[in-house]
Amino acid sequence: MIEPTTGTASASRARVLVIGYGSSLRRDDAAGLIVAERLRSLGHPDVSVIAVPQLTPELALPISESRLCIFVDASSDPDDATVRMRSVRADATPNASHHSDPSGLLALAKRLYDGSIRSWLLTIPVEDLSLGEGLSALTRRCVDEAVKTILLLIESDAAAAPTSNPWSEARHA
Fold first, then answer.
1. Phi, psi of 80 (to 5 degrees)
2. Concatenated DSSP letters of 109-124
């Protein structure tokens, strides 16, 4: 079972879910895991963090329970020379295999739990995917940038979210 760990929010109350994934044994491929661990260490009360080696169908439930989901992964795409943030939409058909991708998991969350949430994929450029530990200089800098980018996204999401129920205020006016 996947146990999200958070600062003070439980997974079912978390407004934001961050899922960092990659291999801790393939140098720069660990970037998503490292970003997740850094965010976890901040203990943000509205953020639940999951760090996993790969995306699996079991993640559909915690995804469906959040309002905003941010996937974090390493990218070996030569066009990705910097941190990139892309909107992710649910696929037309969910993928329930043992290995999933963000759009497939969103589709599964929607189908199984009626979870329709906003979602982003943040990718971090890599230089070294050889066996071993430790990040290249480029990826290390981009991990720092990724953490800052995610924190800004969380802040902007909080500013856009209603702080109270407008219907209850209208009744008392």
1. -95, 85
2. HHHHH----EEEEEEE
